[in-house]
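Record pair follows.
FIRST:
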Amino acid sequence: MSGTARLDRLLANLGYGSRNEVQQLVRRGAVVLDGVAAEDASKRIPITDDLPERMQVNGAPLDPLPGVALMLHKPVGVTCSHKEAGSLVYDLLPSRWRRRDPALSTVGRLDKETSGLLLLTDDGALLHRIISPKAHVAKHYVATLARPLQGDEAARFASGTLMLEGEDKPLAPAIMETLSPTSARLIITEGRYHQVRRMFAAIGNHVALLHRDRIGALTLPADLGSGHYRAMNAADIAAIFA
């Protein structure tokens, strides 16, 4: 994001309230830029990358500007949806972020019982670049299985001939690494519905636990706890396509 924007419109688009509510924030001295309380909500201000470091709202740093991309450590039991009942991934973000314009969306989905690395962005071009089949972005999963591996799973997944129930097109070749008698790492480049769970079901096993720890070369940070998120930088985004 660059150029200039009216202060009230900028803050309203970031979810801080309606333009009238933002004007009330300004009148209360709650919006501070470069150490000085803003006085005119209609004033146009330059939009620079360092604005979140220079502006505070209600004593806290300004939220990330439009064009943000987040990595989130999704817990089990949380749904990647705006509307479904129960706990949603968007509940893990500040409540005002639901009012951001442009809105944040998940980049693909993890099912309710799958944990791990989930990306969110308000950048539609970036979202489609990541999920495009042409990008062949690899997703890495660790699966804990209900029954021991038989030994032929890696070859079957790599064959490019495995069919999922109810589908008429075989899966693209996938890579499997055995981690223990009942756990494996699976690397896929497609994003079919519940794909990893259905792959193991197709060969007679059941996934008891599933965790995604990497997308491309972007690894879920060890210090990013379950339910927590952080903004991605340019190097993080580049790693997705590395």
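SECOND:
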Amino acid sequence: MLVFRGFRHPPSSASVLTLGNFDGVHRGHLALLERLREVAAAQGLPACLVTFEPHPREFFAPAAAPARLTTLREKLEHFAAAGIERVYVAHFDAALAALDAAAFVERIVVAGLRARHVVIGDDFRFGAGRQGDFAFLAAQGQRHGFTVEALGSVVLAGERVSSSAVRQALAAGNMEQAALFLGRPYAIDGRVVHGRKLGRQLGFATANIYIKHNPLPMSGVFAVAVQGLAGGVRHGVANLGLRPTLGGSRPLLEVHLFDFQGDIYGAHLCVQFVHKLRDEMKFPDLFALQAQIAQDVAAARAFFRAE
């Protein structure tokens, strides 16, 4: 998969195109990407995707923007797994925000990416003031020579799958419902960094993983499955949050891997949150924290044994 910042490298041929934020890359998104690949293969054209960075809601109202489900790197990993050939990352700034819908189509869809066919979600809006919708895009397609189709929503367990629905499930600690909507367990990627080594002192060594998710879509203690180490998937228990007992101020992901020893500093890990054990809490001292960690480890082991 090729990734481009902006639109200075258009495809050498016409393309089949989709556009959106794709936060979380949930099952609704995956259905759209599958349709994109089908049409691209049938027409012998590259499957191209435009996503926006930062999320437009982060640009317009950063303090009120929802927690991100996926970083840009995580989104790109999912796009690659879905078979997308070319991804264009559009920097969402004042100039792009001011671009009206007709100019958006002319500069990006037509001149920038040479679209022959465009696949969008039924709720996709674009252009200044969100003035562009499916009907507008279809009319522009007739003018510029491309066709448009909109995919309806995916409904699971009686609920429309959306990024908001995934956030709600995560915030409620319902990891199983989040996994249903995503098509996989919710996960966070990150690199193992040096910490205070306090976990070793407490008898539970942890891998401290630097994360860019701030604010967090959830917090607490979880049974996790970790990918990225030799030997395949490893189970463990993780704390995601601010570590109030230690006076933390920035979100951190700490993972204790079961029956594992080794130097993994610098490793890039994918941590899947399989089941929530409890909320994050503040303890009166380190002895109380140590006792609770032992209980968390036992609970997580029991969960995986039952699985």
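COMMENT: Residues 286-306 form the longest helix (21 residues).
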